[in-house]
Amino acid sequence: MAYKTKTGSLESYEKGVIELNDDLRKYAFSNIYEVAGKSAPFERVAVVQNLEYVAEAVRVEGDGPWYAAPHDEFAIVMDGEVTFRFIKLADDQVPGHEGGAVQLGGEPNGPRMGKVVARKGHQVLLPHGAAYQLSAASPAVALVQTVDGPVTVKRWTEICETN
Amino acid sequence: MDAPAQKIVATGTDESTGYDSFRLGGFTFARDEYFAHIGWPKGSHIIEIDRFLRAMVRDIGWGFFYGWIFFDDIFGTTNHYGTVDIFAGSYDAGYKAQGIDHLETFPAEVVAEAFTTISKNWISEGYDPLNAPLETGTPIGPKGKEKEGELLRSFIAADRMLGLPGDKVVRTEADGFSINRAFADMDFDQPEIECEPGFEGQLHAINLFDHIARSDITWNPSISAVTRGNICCVTSEEHMLPVIHGNDRNEWFIQLTDEIHWNIADKNTGAPRGRVVMKAGDVCAMPADIRHQGFAPKRSMLMVLENGTPGLEKRYASGELKPYPVDFG
Known about the structure:
A: 163 residues, mainly beta, nine-stranded mixed beta sheet, B: 329 residues, Transcriptional Co-activator pc4, Chain A, Jelly Rolls, 2 domains, five-stranded antiparallel beta sheet, 19 strands, 14% helix
């Protein structure tokens, strides 16, 4: 039997359903492609919140700002092709806030570490001690596993199904 | 009456089927050709053998996972991270009302040894409860030659990220993990990593979909990346989750491909609350006060985000933390 795997994209996705005799806000049901489709480029919109931890849906379009975090982060490309560029930070450049990514004022001084070009289904390490920039020639989507931080955007009422 | 055994004890062999029976504390376990039979001082219960073995093997492999693992609405385990409850009817309104429910707490290693002993005796060659039903034989019938090999394999848990030097490896063809038939239509390429001189090995990326597509087992997550206590688990799901999971904390599902139908019920009573159908790109929280069971018509890829902070289960149980994750403000 030949199987047809269904994935989603900014251009084409099918949202599921939530039918519960309960307060739907407890389930915070959303769709990554829908959220990214309605977001400005590089808004990091929380679609998961686990106490201090989040996952952010990001619409990647053009060249983004530079970010850094005081811990590892990880990005999964969910649509399109994304280039990740990395710059090594000196110890005194590594952000010291509690957690989450912080947006830098521009490209930081420091040696270029290289780049990763990733497509749908690829998971990329955004290592502690490095600044990073996401770029995409065409609109793409990334899901970032991180800590709730200064650039995390929350608009649960807009993105989630409610009763 | 004998004192409850604190280790599993074999209590006999059925002459017609060849399977051993066992006792652990006040619980007894026996099987026939079709069913597992569980007994306790005030009651008994029967579970279809395929479902029982699929649940038991995963319960061992997961290290009893987070919270409640219901083999069905009546029988299961609760993880207290060091000790494990085995219960029967403790979270069923009818059993509770009749006073015929039963719960005993054991050291986790005692339950692991017990479930391993039962599984090994009751699983014969040709059947692997970790495989999808279309990819394995049947457990019904009399005892055959006991299955050997990695029957009780547990999940892969990366320390930082899969594929990093010194960390857990991604699945590959060379290691014997072929792309599953259900994902044969997908294209799998690798991310391109270009390191500047002096930074070789410091950048890292993998094809996570390729790793998931090569899983030879179902409903058995592997940890792919860890940000402090923020744990990314990925798994391939086909047919039905052979347990009903009641978490002791909030967790999140992100549907990566295809779809899964989740039945949702009240954790304490089992009363149905409804269902969630998740399709590719959907995100849904599983609150800490529910139990859920998934059904995947086609093998799909699921990502689960767990908060692995130690002691979280006590903070939810005490009411310090709300049983749902988002404050809408």
